[in-house]
Write a structure and sequence with these properties.
Layout: E1 2-7, H1 18-28, H2 41-48, H3 54-69, H4 74-88, H5 94-105, E2 109-117, H6 118-128, E3 132-140, E4 146-151, H7 153-157, H8 159-170, E5 172-181, H9 187-190, E6 195-199, H10 203-212, E7 215-220, E8 223-226
Parallel strand pairs: 1-2, 1-5, 2-3, 5-6, 6-7
Antiparallel strand pairs: 3-4, 7-8
């Protein structure tokens, strides 16, 4: 049985959020209307001014994305996803990028679990050498057009359940396992692994990590340090 290393992607490896970059490209090429970016401007500005929460900003982006995805053809989405990865595949954190490389060399099974669209995650994670990727599937209706709904949302929301499913399906063991995440949404799978690593954590994950004596790593500019 192979040892497993589990990674969140947005904010943990990728130095942005794929749904943000994907929405930007969709607007840029006319698949989304310009007003799609206005949906979240208030929340984005509040976060950039350090008066609001990052989570509120991302939730607003996701709402805009899902609203405007309705009716878009899959082929256009696929082109946009490939553009995003081509542009940003190297916009990664050094710590997690190098950790992925080391674990790959040591024979770990690399598992990615993210709330980003799977259509963009597949290319990005393949480039980094991941073995399996779980992300959000968006429902397709007639003529290969998106309905604006998420398929099996209940499965991807609970990352611990995804891990348990992957362990059984892929023949993996939690012995010697490693997990890396950056928000409280990652707590459920970090509690399962032998070595949880909280990377640039938000305040909720940071407090949880301190209570449980988990490893906390921060990367700022060209400095990487442990708290």
């Amino acid at each position: 049985m192979k040892k497993v290393a589990i990674f969140d992607i947005d904010g943990t490896i990728f130095r942005s959020a794929f749904v943000v970059e994907l929405l930007e490209v969709m607007v840029e090429h006319g698949w989304f209307p310009p007003k799609a970016k206005q949906f979240y401007k208030k929340e984005e500005q509040a976060w950039r001014d350090r008066k609001g929460q990052y989570e509120d900003y991302i939730e607003a982006v996701v709402l805009s994305f899902m609203t405007h995805l309705r009716g878009v053809e899959f082929k256009d989405f696929d082109v946009a996803a490939k553009m995003v990865v081509a542009r940003h595949k190297n916009r990664v954190y050094r710590y997690t990028r190098d950790l992925v490389k080391r674990l790959k060399k040591r024979g770990y099974f690399l598992l990615a679990i993210s709330q980003s669209p799977k259509g963009v995650l597949d290319s990005f994670c393949s480039y980094l050498g991941f073995d399996k990727v779980y992300g959000r599937f968006y429902e397709l209706g007639p003529s290969d057009r998106f309905t604006g709904k998420i398929t099996d949302l209940h499965l991807i929301v609970n990352k611990a359940n995804i891990v348990k499913r992957a362990l059984k399906k892929e023949g993996l063991t939690l012995e010697g396992s490693i997990g890396v995440g950056d928000t409280d949404g990652d707590i459920s799978f970090l509690e399962l692994v032998e070595t949880p690593i909280c990377f640039n954590p938000n305040s909720i994950l940071y407090r949880h990590a301190k209570r449980n004596d988990w490893k906390i790593v921060v990367e700022r500019k060209d400095v990487i340090y442990e708290l």
